[in-house]
Amino acid sequence: MEIAVFTLLALFIALSAVMLYREFSRVNGRVEKLEEKSEAKSKAIHEMDKFWIVMRDKSETYVVKRHVTEEEAKAEAERLCRKENARFFILEVTAYVEPKDMPVAWQEVK
Q1: What pLDDT is recorded for position 72?
Q2: Is 66 within 8 Å of 48 (Cβ atoms)?
Q3: Low-confidence ranges of the chain (pLDDT < 50)
Q4: ∠ CA(15), CA(13), CA(10), 5° rounding?
Q5: DSSP letter string over 6-63?
Q6: Which residues, other chains included, contact 60 with Cβ-Cβ below 8 Å and sequence gap of 6+?
Q7: How far apart are CA 31 and CA 41, in angstroms?
């Protein structure tokens, strides 16, 4: 009787260890992917690497989400297309313009 209880306890511990290892591997994989995405997004924003945006057809709203890969933008466009039953465009940013040393003038108030 004691051997059977000991065997069941050992089996339970072994199965728990396997389940914990699988869960850790799954979560660790997610964390690594999130870290890679975060690094890529940070790089794209700071170094102004190429990025993509998704825009609804005939939309007059501002686009706020930058996608660091074309595949990410396509996935988002597909998701929105299904959700809103509308056409979406994927736009690739190829260039930008920015102001340099804008002059500032102070005036005293009398």
Answers
A1: 94
A2: no
A3: none
A4: 110
A5: HHHHHHHHHHHHHHHHHHHHHHHHHHHHHHHHHHHHHHHHHHT---EEEEETT--SPP
A6: none
A7: 15
